[in-house]
Amino acid sequence: MATVQENWQTKCTSISQTTKYIFNTALLSDVKFIVPMSNGESESKAIPAHKLVLAIGSPVFFAMFYGQMADTRDSIELPDCEYEVVLELFRFIYSDEVQLTGRNVMHVLYLAKKYLVPSLVEKCAEFMRKNLDASNVFSILSHAQKFEDKDLENRCWKVVEVQTEEALASDDFVVIERSLVESVVKSEKLNVKEVELFKAVNRWAEKKIENQGIASDGNAKREIIGEEILKEIRFPLMSQKEFATFVVDSNILSVQEIVNMIKHYSQVLTSPLPYLQSLRTGALRRVCRFKEYRAAGIERLWNYFDGSWNAIILSIDKNVRLYGVQHFGCEGCEYSVSMKINDAASYLSLAKKSGTYSSEKDSDGIYYGFDVLIDSPVILESGRRYEIRSMISGPQSWHGAKGQTSVNFEGINFIFSRSNDPLCCSNVEQGQFPVLLCTHSG
Description:
Elements: H1 15-22, E1 31-36, E2 44-49, H2 51-57, H3 59-66, E3 75-77, H4 83-95, H5 105-114, H6 118-131, H7 137-146, H8 150-162, H9 164-168, H10 178-186, H11 194-212, H12 218-225, H13 227-230, H14 240-250, H15 255-266, E4 285-288, E5 290-294, E6 310-316, E7 320-328, E8 334-343, E9 349-358, E10 360-361, E11 368-380, E12 385-393, E13 399-403, E14 406-409, E15 412-417, E16 435-440
Helix pairs in contact: 2-3, 4-5, 5-6, 7-8, 11-12, 11-14
């Protein structure tokens, strides 16, 4: 036992200092925990502890040492834990301090929940909220799923959706489980080019093959990836150059699959491709036209009347692809919508979409709304005028205010003007259509 200072108690000004002084020492210890140095390893190390201190800090330890079925052993093995992680649990119980890192935080969180130490649970959650980013999101996401922490899992998915390309490029992505890769490629809310998603999956497969020590070829990678993941890659969204440079050279697709894609690019394919061709919504640019938003309520109503339309005129100075338009709604409400995209000069209909939509908070959490996506994007040409109009049935909704006549977004000027239809409810200053969902046409 280490040398004990004489009258050490008098040097402690509080009970917390006293318990901190005896932390991880044999002084007054009446139990020790035998814990593997790393999970699954045979080498173990003992942590001296004090039943009273542990029982005061955790109801689980109280039941273990002082309950009806009290454990009277002076040595307790914890084979499913790691030494450094248990040490941090005890450090917190003894001193109200903890040394968290990106590597240990999820394991400490697991023990904090297991031993019912809610203040440590909150410490771990706070650490992850402050330190969660694209570089570690997949590591934390894997642990969040393992420990069934839904709130943390949702936070991780938000990072993945917003910073997809950075997250896919991280070292953590190539070591995640196959089930998580499948969840990623199935997500509609990825903010990444499809070719970059494919390249990340290819790197993940190559890493798996390297770890297994087998020869790396197209067939091996395809077996590792599996058909469920492969069919979710939207190859038609890649340019022909991207497909030829990265997909063909990976040797993952069969000769016939490559031939079919070449026919697709040449517009001579007679049978449908087995891949989705719609753009993932996370990759869409969201062009906002309002500066303020008004909630549904007694003083600020936005009603929908049978036979009335909401419409706005749009023009741009560079070509864009329009994928849809966001509409306002209200919390927990459903709306029936019939939307049209027309050429304002000829009144030729370019796209139509009808359906019933559930309203939820927008991506910034400011107002309630829903996206109406058209089946095929419309190329809006520079210098032409287009009308967006929707007939909407449903409860009162939020609406926009202080609308902008001109919005410059990523170098493109979006010009808004009022529809000539006198029955239309929306206009430039207020009303519907808070966001255009589009991409650069080039």
